[in-house]
Amino acid sequence: MRTLRLLAIGWKFHFKMIMRSAFDGVGQVIYPLFFATVAFFVFQAGDSPRTLLYASLGSAVMGMWSATSTTAGSAMQRERWQGTLEALVATPTNFALILLPVTIAMATIGIYSLVATLLWGRFLFGIHLTLVHPLMFVLSIPATVLTFGALGFLFAVCFVRFRAAWALGNMFEYPVWLICGFLVPLTFFPDWVRPISWVLAPTWGMNAIRESSLGGSPLPDLLMCFALGTAYIALGFLVMERLLRSARERAALSLT
Amino acid sequence: MNSVRLFFVGGLTSYRALFYWLSPTIYIPSLIVAPIFQILLFAYIGRSAGLESDVFYVTGNAIQYAAIPCLFAMSQTVSGERFQNTLSAILVSPAKRFPLFVGRALPVMGNAFFVSAFSFAAGCIILGVSLPAGSIPGLAVVILIAAFSCTGLGLTNAAISLRVRENAVLSNVIFGFLLIFTGANVPISELPGWMQDVSHVIPLTHAIQAARDLAAGEPFSHVTGLLATELGIGIAYLAGGLVLLRVFEWQGRKHATLEQL
Fold it and tell me: Using the beta-carbon criterion (under 8 Å), do A45 and B41 form an inter-chain contact?
């Protein structure tokens, strides 16, 4: 119960804090709209059978990832700059439980981006959102947010020893957009790319949202989201434990 | 003589200060890897949507990505000084503003040229795009002019940074604006009329078109008009940026808002 309370309060606190930041709050909502607009124009002008709704859903999820990747990379760095990292690590609570709600709060901002992109498509390009499985669509969004948050958590943990963690997080924005099938079906990529896509939860989150909307069977995709999200969190806890022990032994937590 | 010294020494010092924090751990992910993935992203979106060839997206995105180093590095010339508490010391000095700020723009332009040319070459290699051998010197000139005109826009962005606190958000917004309006990924003819009008008065549009013409095998003489227009747009933005710097500097002094964070 205490753990759930910690996660809930941490999420609420960081969500409110991110919303006050022009870069993380406003910027991360507006920025993906530019990419969405380009995608709408490209699909509108192209001769592909894929519809504008296909592009709209893909662009919307791109925004969700955008809200997570850069900021998750710098989650630890921000605590370091603010001088609170050591204090947080020293608390009796497992540090991973403090970090996890931070990245989930970042991914939650992505819902704003998702809604903004769908509305942008609706009012500027006349793209109507149709939902073949409305209930599954409603379930797919929080599931995707949680798995994005879990992947962001793993990134944040893995980048803890890098000073320029934000740049690494930023670097992963385009590759995930590209290989997770947001706007390009996986069949377009070389065979060796597909296994990489399969271990990235955004691939399944995107599938779940798209199949809920356009038709298909989103349940297996949701289950994959759940399985991969759990795996990311478990891996993040393990890596965090080792990294913090190493940082304590070397007195290298602050990277000064 | 003092202005020449300020232009070169001041520019070099600013460049070194910029690259003090723009270390390889930041430079490689942001300015080497990211543009390549931007090219791949849009090339594959183009394949998925059935619009245009790979060479269209390589030329468009490699040149458009020059905007990142230009916009962010130029805005740093103001916001970086503000962050270090040295902005008022610089603006109180009697130094002429033209060599002071344009000197800082020179290394930025060189860096933008490198980023753009590197991503162009990498994009061609990865996607298997072959260009006529004779077009390469012409393409280098196009990229250089694109870097210049975008640095002009960067100087305007730097001037606005005297008044706008969130210059990273502003730079991202301008970058996104260029992504749509320059025709980097969508043929200009496919944009609505008012957007086509805007695209003709912003940097990079004409350079991208010139690069595409050269890549298609047109002779350099065919694109000189486009390059002259691009150069003119760059000069206009550079001049506009210098004027805005003066105006906002004066306003900053008047309202005591230079150091406001």
Answer: no
